[in-house]
Design goal:
globular; 682 residues; 25 helices; alpha+beta
Length: 682
């Protein structure tokens, strides 16, 4: 019999709707029930593409005995971290503070007042590797709750006080935005953690450092630092050639479990692929790398082919697991891995040998049970032969049982995809990508934006969810709209971005310090109002907002928005030298601030090839965070202040390069414009 999750829209919650556990969704009713019964709350947090969430569900939550004990002595609450990142953030901070690590599924025990007192992540069904079983944890927590209630309350109080103390350090007003010395210090710190042999930063597991690469590319563009460029290029190539990159279908897995980028954790997330699409586009723009160009296009094609929803937006993720055709059981990576015999059956001996050499498919394998994750350690000598083999393998793979798709639409991640697709379509002459970006933006306007200008975080099948948007939703959606404006010239996108950012200033900003909160001032009250300037898998909402505010100010000349961006960046100066890997997007935005950012106005008739040539040169520019406005003289000045008072020059289309609306002499020469903006490609 279905439990209370049966009416949820979250695919993750629906995965648990048939559990014998009497799950409650997050809400006041669950905690009122715990208070009425005098029992603690088990909070279990995960997401649909999470491998270990599935494992714990099968081992424990589908077990009738475990469920019976849990139902008798606890109120069980299930949360999709992607729908409620605020709930996840608050309790994950407590888990990490108490245990030194975190992850999903997250398992937290709370008082009926929502105060945490015991933490963990995955617990096995039997004790192993020094971990207690889940049943032992339940029994221990139950005993403590019944026999040592005062001690439990004291622990919960200390944890709550510790969280409040941690929040006090995020006062942006105590710092200035990072200057050149801070950004150089961040580069030096990154160089110490850079893996000179394999690319990336640190050891295993290795996550794609998209935000850090953006900082490195911007730092190189501004300062000419070859060290910054080398770290960006080597990391980009290592990921592109490794198993973390889907060599057949494009796109990237969540992370590599090893330091060599060979074996991925196979789930594919929209946010990773949106961020990496933009990274590889910018790598191509900075270097002309054909590999970077191929990866950008194949990643864009993956987004459109496998994550685009019927409504025109983009789904959240593909699962790591799928059915293994031989065993009939669900297995991680089964869709993606190959054995030598499969190549022979598909391609014949000669082409199979070529494919095995190209993609590093070996008899011993690089993954489980003698299977290999495909890599492309060097470019093929014969690209036509390679493309034919790749096509045949891709088509054969498509007949395998596919991973499940989490098809909810998250506003923030669609904002990232909109920005990446719009830029890629414009730079690589793919108008279909720009159209896809506009389609996703239209869906956000139609379904996620409420009549009072507020954003909802999620939707599914074109139906809005009920959860309020958090800071990253406003910031990343605004970033996507600003990118759409720069590419399409449609001023409505600029105006919509401004509306979202005004909401950020009104509801998410601490006026005294300039610090930003992850939730609005009228959102549900948790034990702490979540706030974090550091990046996780996506840019911090705090620094993403700073970037969008800075870009909007560059288009409009708004001192209010620029000042808010500068104040928000204060925390980046404090963290630049100490934790640059975790403040990458903040460093990238700080590079834009140091550079101006450059404001480029191209004026000329839309159908004039000279206008198009200037626009192309501007788009190819590497100046950090530069903004571009294109329009006919006088036509859009009222809507876009950057275009105001910018006449043609000698009757010809012209480009104006400005900082703080103070402009250099205009030029009608695309090459001269490119030289000012650091254009590498011709």
């Amino acid at each position: 019999m279905p439990n209370r999750l049966a009416d949820a829209t979250s695919p993750y919650l629906l995965q648990h709707a048939e559990n014998p556990v009497d799950w409650w969704p997050w809400g006041p009713e669950a905690f009122e029930e715990a208070e009425r019964r005098g029992v603690p709350v088990l909070l279990s947090v995960g997401y649909a593409a999470c491998h270990w969430c599935h494992v714990m569900a099968h081992e424990s939550f589908e077990d009738a005995g475990t469920a019976g004990y849990l139902n008798e002595r606890f109120v069980a609450v299930k949360v999709d971290r992607e729908e409620r990142p605020d709930v996840d953030a608050v309790y994950m901070e407590a888990v990490q503070a108490a245990t030194g690590q975190g992850g999903w599924p997250m398992t937290v025990f709370l008082t009926p007042d929502k105060e945490p007192f015991y933490f963990g992540t995955y617990f096995p069904p039997q004790p192993r590797h020094g971990m207690p079983s889940f049943r032992q944890v339940l029994e221990g927590v139950d005993a403590a709750w019944r026999d040592r209630r005062q001690e439990v309350g004291e622990v919960a109080g200390r944890i709550r006080a510790d969280l409040a103390e941690r929040a006090a350090v995020y006062s942006a007003g105590a710092h200035h935005p990072p200057g050149d010395a801070d950004l150089h210090q961040a580069l030096v710190a990154l160089s110490r953690e850079f893996d000179q042999t394999r690319g990336g930063f640190g050891g295993a597991p290795k996550f794609p450092p998209a935000m850090v690469i953006e900082f490195l590319l911007r730092h190189h563009a501004r300062t000419g630092s070859e060290a910054a460029l080398e770290m960006a290029v080597r990391t980009g190539e290592a990921m592109a050639r490794g198993g973390i990159h889907d060599q057949l279908g494009g796109g990237f897995a969540r992370y590599a479990v090893d330091a060599d980028w060979v074996v991925p954790h196979f789930e594919k997330m929209l946010y990773d692929n949106a961020l990496l699409l933009r990274v590889y586009l910018h790598l191509w723009r900075a270097t002309g790398s054909e590999l970077a160009r191929r990866v950008a296009l194949s990643t864009a094609d993956f987004l459109l082919r496998e994550l685009r929803t019927p409504e025109g937006a983009f789904a959240s993720a593909l699962d790591a697991d799928s059915l293994d055709e031989e065993t009939g059981a669900s297995a991680e990576g089964a869709y993606y891995v190959w054995e030598p015999g499969q190549l022979v059956d598909l391609l014949g001996p000669a082409d199979a040998a070529t494919a095995a050499r190209l993609f590093t498919v070996t008899a011993d394998g690089t993954f489980e049970h003698g299977t290999s994750v495909l890599q492309l350690l060097a470019d093929p000598e014969d690209f036509a032969e390679y493309e034919e083999i790749r096509r045949r393998m891709f088509e054969a793979r498509a007949s395998r049982p596919a991973p499940a798709r989490d098809d909810k639409v998250v506003a923030a991640w669609n904002g990232l995809a909109i920005a990446a697709l719009a830029e890629t379509g414009a730079l690589l002459d793919r108008p279909d990508l720009v159209e896809a970006a506009e389609g996703a933006a239209d869906l956000l306007l139609a379904v996620h934006l409420t009549p009072d200008g507020r954003l909802l975080r999620t939707s599914r099948d074109g139906r809005p969810g009920t959860n309020a948007g958090v800071l990253e939703d406003y910031a990343d959606t605004a970033e996507g709209f600003l990118a759409l404006y720069s590419v399409t010239g449609d001023a409505e996108w600029l105006q919509l971005a401004g509306g979202l950012l005004d909401t950020v200033l009104k509801h998410f900003t601490d006026e005294a310090s300039g610090a930003l909160y992850d939730t609005a001032d009228d959102a549900e009250e948790l034990i702490r109002r979540p706030q974090d300037p550091t990046d996780n898998a996506t840019p911090s909402g705090w620094t993403a907002a700073a970037g969008a505010l800075l870009g909007y100010a560059a288009y409009t000349g708004s001192d209010r928005h620029r000042t808010a961006a500068e104040r928000a960046l204060g925390i980046v100066g404090a963290l630049a030298g100490r934790a640059p890997r975790f403040i990458g997007w903040g460093l990238a935005v700080a590079e834009a601030l140091q550079d101006g950012p450059r404001e480029i106005a191209v004026v000329g008739p839309a159908d004039d090839p000279a206008t198009a040539a200037l626009r192309r040169a501007a788009l190819l520019g590497t100046a950090p965070g530069a903004v571009l406005a294109v329009g006919a003289p006088g036509e859009a000045a009222a809507e876009v202040p950057l275009l105001a008072d910018r006449p043609l020059v000698g009757g010809a289309p012209a480009a104006y390069v400005c900082r703080h609306f103070a402009c250099e002499a205009p030029t009608t020469d695309p090459a001269a414009l490119g030289a000012r903006l650091g254009v590498v490609l011709e």
